[in-house]
Amino acid sequence: MGSADSNTIEVAALGRPFSLGMLYDCRRDLLIPGMTLWGHDHLIQHIRERRQHYSAFEIVASESIDDKTSALDVSASLKASFLSGTVEVGGAAKYLSHDKKSKKEATVTLKYEATTKFEQLSMDHLGKDNLRYLDDFKQGKASHVVTGILYGAKAFFVFDSDVSSDENVEEVKGELKVMINKIPSISIDGHGALKMKTKEKESVEKFSCKFHGDFLLDKTPSSFQDAVQVYQSLSKLLGANGENAVPVKVWLLPLTQLRTSATTVVREVSPMFIDEMQAVLEDLKEVEMRCNDALKTAAQQFSEIGRKIKTFKDMCSGFKLEFQRNLAKKLPAIRGGEEEENNVLHEIWKKRYSSPFNSKYLNEWMDFKEREIYTLKSFTSMMKNTKIIPSQSDLYKEILSSDHAVCFFFTLLGGHEPYLSDLSKHLGQTPKPDDPKESSVNDIKKEQWYTSKDVTDAMRHKAKLFGDFAEANKEKKNIKFLAVGSTDETQEGSSIVLYKDGFPVTKNFEPPSKPETLTVKDINHNSVTLKISPAKFGAENITSYSVEYCVSGQDGWIEKTAAGAEEVTVSDLSPNTEYKFRCRAVTSVGVGPANEVSGSIKTLPCSTPGKPQVEPNSSEISVSWEKFQQKSQRVLEDFSELEMRCNDALKTTTAQQFPQIGTKIKAFKEMCSEFKLEYQQTLEKKLPSIRGGGEEEAVLAEILKKIHSSPFKSKDLNKWMDCKETEIHTLKSLTNMMKNTKIVSSETDLYKESLGADHTVCFLFPSLGSDESYLSTLSNYLKQTPKTDHPEETRTHDVEKEQWYASKEATDKMWSKAKLFNDFAEANKENKNIKFLAAGSTDETQKGSSIYLYKDGFSVTENFELPSRPETLTVRDINHNSVTLKISPAKFGAENITSYSVEYCVSGQEGWKEKMAAEEEVTVSDLSPNTEYKFRCRAVTSVGVGPANEISGSIKTLPFNPPGEPQDEPNSSERPEPDMAQEEMLMKTADGSSVQDNVSDKE
Fold this sequence. Notes:
Layout: E1 9-12, E2 23-25, E3 30-32, H1 40-45, E4 47-60, H2 65-71, H3 76-83, E5 105-121, H4 135-139, E6 144-162, H5 169-181, H6 198-204, E7 208-213, H7 224-231, H8 234-237, E8 246-254, H9 271-295, H10 298-301, H11 303-335, H12 341-354, H13 359-380, E9 387-389, H14 392-400, E10 404-410, H15 418-428, H16 438-446, H17 453-472, E11 479-485, E12 494-500, E13 503-506, E14 515-523, E15 528-535, E16 542-551, E17 558-562, E18 567-570, E19 578-587, E20 595-596, E21 601-602, H18 628-651, H19 653-657, H20 659-691, H21 696-708, H22 714-737, E22 742-743, H23 747-755, E23 759-765, H24 773-783, H25 808-827, E24 834-840, E25 850-855, E26 858-861, E27 870-878, E28 883-890, E29 897-906, E30 913-917, E31 921-924, E32 932-941, E33 949-950, E34 955-956, H26 980-987, H27 996-1002
Parallel strand pairs: 9-11, 10-11, 22-24, 23-24
Antiparallel strand pairs: 1-8, 2-3, 2-6, 4-5, 5-6, 6-7, 6-8, 10-12, 12-13, 14-15, 15-18, 16-17, 16-19, 19-20, 19-21, 23-25, 25-26, 27-28, 28-31, 29-30, 29-32, 32-33, 32-34
Region (Disordered): 424-443, 951-1003
Domain Fibronectin type-III: 514-606, 869-960
Organism: Sparus aurata
């Protein structure tokens, strides 16, 4: 550990009331008021002052702890104290406590700073021989004395803008930066208005502002306009002579420099320790933002979910407070030499990873809540004309204010979740247990109602019936349609309850669906007879059917009641008039959705019609006798280089898109850091024997032998990283092939995306999250106490064999699937009903890759083979108005092909027409004579179409009239030149074969 005892140190003031001669304790980063070493008058006489004018502004685009502490010039040691909650800040330094509340919020900060003067004590006069109050040394409360202060002021304008679901946070931040950069140069007119373009004014209206500064303002800015006005007045607010300036930076002299009896030890805290503290707090901050965002969604409408998320958030805040309290106790002890930093760091690691507050578990729980919210949103979006009620008391008010109320209950939202109980128990336990409760996390998924396909299918079906019923009765003021969350273990997921005058009548009310069919049986000049097929659902609640009709193009439907699903004749119609017909089920509450006859039905004329008119439609050990320090340093450098490789890999787009890779690299990096820490601790223990002389090489050889016999030898570690970098490169190459495809990084995002389309085709990499025995070996080695030497471990681990891409057969199949997937996605890019996604997953039953087909958010096929293009498309016959084509079937995806689509268009024109082909030979008719056409063919599936095979060049139909008799000129030695266009037309097919014989037969 380094020491801060020998040199003057600089410390950011952070709004604290420093003055020259004040005592300070660097162990606690605490001012010591009421204690001094010199008399006040003597002190004043020996202050030296000089002017130091400076001002600047800059944009701070990140809200990370590192960026905020850097903007305030906070040292690493002071940052540790702030993170532990022991430093109370004021003025501009309150910016450190400004946290984003939402991930859907773009935040950019404008920083202004100015300095005015520098004051310092003359140590020639205030040195060791001039001390007055020596008793203050003996108390040992202080470690340093303030000997210099830089005065000035800082200000931070934090601009926020909410980001909608269809906006990008980084793009909005870019807009913010552009406008904020203009603040120093924006003019203000005589009325206080900003001189800006109209478009710019509209843009800044969305920005809100929060001010943190060392200035006393008449009014705190809350808008962009306020911020401009305040910013441009800041220099004046310091005062003409800087009389309003405050300490911004102080210089501290160790008391050991004044009197040797002041033996206070102050050790610096290592960057690794601070990074670990920061990581814990930033993880908790991320979870808090996710909670805030979730509470703004469907959680507002369903109080059961909202209560769980609020409870979860409160417990995370409780854990954070407990973590900071523990740090606040440990930091002074580490700095004072009472505790070893490594022991405290190891304790933090243990508590972080072995408690239910492990970041992985917290984020998993939030993943499930977000997925639950997305699922509810997909159901409620189906419910038109429906009010969502947040609580049971509100429900009671609503059902009393209407004759009838139909209410859709989500019955499992308030169910018990063991993980929340585990969090609560852990917070209440003293001391905390070290063993992780893996079972609790595994239980999370099992407890979620929406993970059952049977439950969600039944719920989706009920929601569709409910939504259609509500829409059909939207004009009826005596019926209310409501949706509410509840806890009822007797109901599987959902139930529909019918209320009358505030009391439940039916607890499992099934609304009627539309009649299955409505067909025309007979048409007369003044009547139409219709056949009604009964509704498939809700039959027990149907009292009759309503047939409705109106003249086409007019409003005003007339009703005729039919007692049941039967034939019904609608009479008193006008002759020779077009009518529209529809039918719906009737219940005691309201009517169901309508089934409407397609098109219009025309009654017959009174007289006999005339003749019809036809209108056609168309690392290993190497022995070298260097010094101990050099050799031990080399090991540390190897680990540092490895850490840099990990950091670079984690920054790649591919590792961010596929978190299964990122999670492994993070775990690998953390295990290397822990092994490095153990190595450093071993060195510290061996130093006394080395300093005693005679054991340097023996000690080093022992340490290096331990490393070499462990799985943490450099060669294996770097080989594993080589594999991860290769994996990232392979994935990047594969995903670059996939056009019209969105890469999703989590199961939650995949579920959300698949709910937003009728069909979703997803290319899954199922081996990305597979267990790797090498990582398990590293983890098991770290858990051993004491470490044992295993000769068998000295072998190099064949980590390459564990990688999914190591098998040529697997990668060849993957490239083939990726090509089929890309071709299929490209062929369907105009189809808005299909989404194409790529994602990583963990599925030991699948190797390398698989293509999943989803419908309405649920998996339909786990190995969906996409069709390739038809192998060949050849011309079999050409006529003046038709072309016959031969289709050779597609090589891949045959089991999913329902038919083939032959597409054709006139050469040079747009607008392809389609003809479906059930067989291998198809004739395209109704073509124009003597006209060039282009032809192509593709496979058709129930989801979409495959890529096309297009005939090279164009095919020309024959002219309408056959040619006359050939003219033979016997005296001529030359044969007549053939018509080249005709010859070319005769010779062209997709595979180069001739069709001349076919044409000659025709002629």
